[in-house]
């Protein structure tokens, strides 16, 4: 038995695994330092209402400027932040920063913030958000909480309960990256959502594949009948914009219309 354990120990500390573990521990230490030393900032991508084309809000996107490695995209560090639960503190920072920045703009643009399922499952995000709403004085109806369908429909019941408590604060709930997870339109009955963001993979395929356009059209049509807004994500071409206008999506977001960047208070809301 000791021999077997010995073998498995050798296996656990195989060199490449050891390297991965070291990288992960380093990343965790770096993330802690990043939060303490202010290495994070937010990029804001504008979102536009259709058919008017007026800018109606922004999505806050987390950016990390690492002191030696330079800019690191969120997809490269959110997972470690989730595993270590650092996302709870990082996510609270994002919410506070975003509500402060956008709350100070003229007009009443909305601010969308991405929430990790870990933030729903651990700690007390409702208390955190309530405090931030109070501090910043932003109208809760201007705040949108984006969550992915995997977090909402394949995760714990607790995630849905927590999101309901957020919604009770008066904020809007948004299903992000719709179509990429275990999505089923029937799931939409399980949780009161204000908006669905149709994943950019569908938007990307629409022009060449009639099937993708048909799916987006069906989603937009059903959402409309349920009184739910639909944002088309990842609009990169005029052709895609024309299609989602025709299909009747209520909002558009993408590089064609606006890149993530510093908040520009001068742009009309
Ligand atoms: P997401 O919430 O779906 O955000 C949209 C992503 O698509 C952003 O990537 C944005 O820069 C990118 N994007 C926008 N328009 C276009 C386009 O026209 N074409 C293409 N190809 N991409 C476009 P980003 O900023 O790298 O963020 C990636 C993901 O990281 C986000 O996906 C979100 O899931 C996560 N994330 C970002 N900020 C936060 C945060 O504060 N907290 C949490 N938990 N997750 C975050
Ligand atoms: Mg999002
Ligand atoms: Mg998305
Ligand atoms: Mg995403």
Q: What does this entry look like structurally?
A:
Helices cover 47% and strands 20% of the residues. It has helices spanning 2-12, 15-37, 78-83, 86-103, 117-121, 125-136, 149-154, 157-168, 200-206, 210-226, 238-247; strands at residues 40-49, 55-66, 70-72, 110-114, 143-148, 172-178, 195-198, 229-232, 251-252. The chain has an eight-stranded mixed beta barrel with strand order 1-2-4-5-6-7-8-9, surrounded by five helices. Strand 8, helix 11 and strand 9 form a beta-alpha-beta unit. Helix 6 (125-136) packs parallel to helix 8 (157-168). The chain is globular and about 55 Å long. Residues 59, 114, 146, 176 line the site of one magnesium ion (MG). This is Diguanylate cyclase (GGDEF)-like protein. It comes from Kaistia hirudinis.
SSE blueprint and pairings:
Blueprint: H1 2-12, H2 15-37, E1 40-49, E2 55-66, E3 70-72, H3 78-83, H4 86-103, E4 110-114, H5 117-121, H6 125-136, E5 143-148, H7 149-154, H8 157-168, E6 172-178, E7 195-198, H9 200-206, H10 210-226, E8 229-232, H11 238-247, E9 251-252
Helix pairs in contact: 2-4, 4-6, 6-8, 9-10
The structure holds ligand C2E and magnesium ion (3 copies).
Protein name: Diguanylate cyclase (GGDEF)-like protein
Keywords: Coiled coil
Organism: Kaistia hirudinis
- Measured by DSSP, the beta-strand proportion falls in 15-25%
Bound small molecules, by name, code or SMILES, are:
ligand C2E, magnesium ion
Whole-angstrom Rg: 20 Å
What is the topology, as strand order, of the major beta sheet? 1-2-4-5-6-7-8-9
Distance between the termini: 69 Å
Parts with pLDDT < 50 across at least 5 consecutive residues: none
Quickly count the helices: 11
Portion of residues within helices: 40-55%
Q: Which structural category do the helix and sheet elements fall into? A: alpha/beta
Number of strands: 9
Which H/E pattern describes the elements? HHEEEHHEHHEHHEEHHEHE
Average predicted local confidence, pLDDT: 91
The general outline is globular
Question: Main β-sheet, in a few words?
Answer: 8 strands, mixed, barrel
Domain EAL: 24-269
Protein name: Diguanylate cyclase (GGDEF)-like protein
């Amino acid at each position: 038995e000791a021999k077997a354990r010995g073998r498995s120990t050798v296996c656990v500390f195989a060199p490449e695994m050891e390297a991965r573990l070291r990288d992960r521990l380093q990343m965790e230490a770096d993330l802690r330092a990043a939060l303490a030393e202010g290495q994070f900032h937010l990029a804001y991508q504008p979102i536009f209402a259709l058919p008017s084309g007026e800018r109606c809000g922004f999505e806050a996107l987390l950016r990390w400027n690492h002191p030696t490695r330079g800019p690191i995209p969120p997809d490269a560090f959110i997972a470690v932040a989730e595993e270590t639960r650092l996302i709870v503190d990082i996510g609270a920072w994002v919410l506070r920063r975003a509500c402060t920045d956008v709350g100070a703009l003229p007009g009443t643009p909305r601010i969308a913030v991405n929430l990790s399922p870990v933030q729903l499952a651990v700690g007390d995000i409702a208390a955190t958000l309530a405090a931030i709403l109070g501090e910043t004085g932003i109208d809760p109806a201007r705040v949108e909480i984006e969550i992915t369908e995997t977090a909402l429909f394949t995760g714990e019941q607790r995630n849905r309960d927590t999101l309901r408590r957020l919604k009770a604060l008066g904020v809007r709930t948004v299903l992000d990256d719709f179509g990429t997870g275990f999505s089923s339109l029937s799931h939409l009955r399980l949780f009161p959502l204000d908006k669905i963001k149709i994943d950019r993979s569908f938007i990307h395929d629409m022009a060449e594949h009639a099937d993708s356009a048909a799916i987006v059209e069906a989603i937009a049509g059903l959402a409309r009948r349920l009184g739910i807004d639909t944002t088309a994500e990842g609009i990169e071409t005029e052709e895609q914009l024309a299609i989602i206008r025709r299909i009747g999506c209520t909002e558009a977001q993408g590089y064609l219309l606006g890149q993530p960047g510093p908040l520009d208070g001068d742009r009309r809301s």
